[in-house]
Amino acid sequence: MVDSPPSLTKKTTGFRWELLALLWLAFFLNQADRQIFSVVLPLIRKDLGLTDAQLGLIASALVWTYGLLVPIAGFIGDRFSRRNILGFCLLFWSCATLLTGFCSSVVQFIALRGMATGGGEAFYAPSANALLGETYKEKRSFALSIHQTAVYFGIILSGIIAGYIGEHYGWQKAFYLFGSLGVVLAFVFFTRIPKDVVVSTAESQQQMWAEIGKTARTVARKPTVIMLTLGFGCMVFVNVGYLTWMPSFLVDKFNMSLTDAGFSSLFYHHLGAFLGVLSGARISDYYAKSNPRSRLVVQALGLLLGAPFIYGISMSNTQLLTYIALFLFGIFRGWYDSNIVASLYEVVSPKIRSSAYGLMLACAFLIGSFAPYLLGVLKPTLGLTAGLASLSGVYVLGSLFLWAGAFLFFDRDKEVSQ
To answer: Which of 67, 133, 231, 399 could pair with 304 as two cysteines, CB 3.0-4.6 Å apart?
Structure first.
């Protein structure tokens, strides 16, 4: 098991904020590296002559790999040095991103962009969120929400930068740039963050695989966790589908340049999500003091209220209405995001939080991984407008799962000691 040494639990403000800052930058690149492909997708399609189904398959491959490996990452995060896990996975996925710029076939993209980048990124979130949750116990939702904002900045800036670089210098250069930045940050991370003390015997490491099944059975006996996972899966399905195809949707529908589409498809939504995640965290932290189920209620409201605006994004006839819908969709998506980890922590014990989060991520991403491929297959016949509009129904379904978790099972499953 991993015991946090004084250097990781001390109340020194400088260290606490340096840790959060470096993890924020790492998460920024985690999301940016994932999004580059979707932004320059039209250029790759034109340059290499790939079909929409093939492009969707490449996008889905990353999510499939992520979903399969993230539960293993969660269990490893509870048993090995989280600082080493975070540093090495950042270095690995950044090298894979850099090498993606050399790809020229579907197989190469699946191997580097799908399996290598997705595999490296899978080991980040469980350890990072567990480390932040332990360091910021009194302001857990706030710290985790600040960390979550890196998602929005990473996706927005990657849209602008990758779109511009792709149009002017070629899509390959975008992968070179972001991959190189990650390699540099990995070395900074190893230099600035002290190694945490690991108390792990050979016997305990051999038992890790047996404990995966034990922990899975433990969380499976809590229906609230199942409802949270199904709701998360619905959210991921919508999010992955939107992120993969929205830039191409704006290019096709409004004849926008790649740079403008990369910016517009991501900025307005994630500006709203940034504001939503901060307000959602404040709201849930306030009400959770007297009623911890409030975290799930805020999430359920986020999905339910966001659904009409997903439909509006696809059906709007003007760019202005599309941008307004993107912004409001983002606000309520942020409400959901602000409590992804905090809600789970209300119903699982501290000793298995990293492992439980890894399992939840795995199931959710395996559910959501089919969205890019399905939308790519349906694009030539159904069209992206109808395909993206149908995602609103998935948000409604996710909201129903969360309402069930909050009001049917939460009282039985909640943890007394947080």
So the answer is: 399
